[in-house]
Amino acid sequence: MEKQSGYTWKLxxxxxxxxxxxxTAIYFIGKQKNLFGSTFHLTSKFxxxxxxxxxxxxxxxxxxxxxxxxxxxxxxxSVVVSMVIKDEVRExxxxxxxxxxxxxxxxxxxxxxxxxxxxxxxxxxxxxxxxSIDGIEMNxxxxxxxxxVDNVGVISEELAIFSHSMNNGNGxxxxxxxxxxxxxxxxxxxxxxxxxxKGFSDNMEAAKSNFLFRGYFKKKDKAKEKLEWxxxxxxxxxxxxxxxIQLGQILVEEKKYEDALKKANDVDNEGYLGxxxxxxxxxxxxxxxxxxxxxxxxxxxxxxGPKDPYARFTQEKLESLGA
Length: 323
What we know:
The chain has eleven helices and nine strands. The protein is α/β, with parallel strands linked by helices and 323 residues long. A hairpin with a 4-residue loop joins strand 8 (211-212) and strand 9 (217-218). Helix 4 runs antiparallel to helix 5.
């Protein structure tokens, strides 16, 4: 009888502990999934959810405030995400708030992040909808990185050719870099010019202080010569286009607007037509041709596309002209 009683006691304790653990687990899971307490619902429409799943966290100002309740495909280009959110934070979410999809760390789970509104003071209603922000896809980043690496490779090859020409060529520039006698001759000539022309003494001093390669060559003149060489010897149209655009910018600084415009017009690489048209706008604006400048900026915006970081600066220039 005593053995039977001890067995019953142990069984009762086991069942009691099991029930307590089960209730505790239900409580914590329910709290995490917002099954307890007052909540409200929001929806947002995305083009792609980038791996977001039901049950992922919803964050506001870095704080977990809810979870993703449902992900519903509307058509081939629209996905509606439904969220259940703690009612205590609803007063902070305005009607112009925006939803975006990010990651919890570099390789963590996806999270839905709500950015607070800036203009509206109206609190979002239950079952309301907020706008979405398109996230940056990893494939887009990798394509951009690959393009940048390819461009670096092309430019490195062209610079290697230029360096070889400088080290082994017999032109005036190559001799200026390698020949100490010629360098000294140039220095003496500058000194004589400073002594004989008082009105230009400050300009000569500035020129000497800007010499590269042992201080005997102006930075701007050196840059122009390198860019002229690159624009006429480049094997890749991308390298040629970069050189032409930078040449045009230098010519604008020197107020040689017609020459700068010619360089901008010579750019024919599709990937750099946005930058060349932006440069045309700058040149035409400096020449006082406001209407033509507006057309150039509009063409630049068309070439850049809405996501290009340069588009914002071009848009500001266009607006400054009253467009």
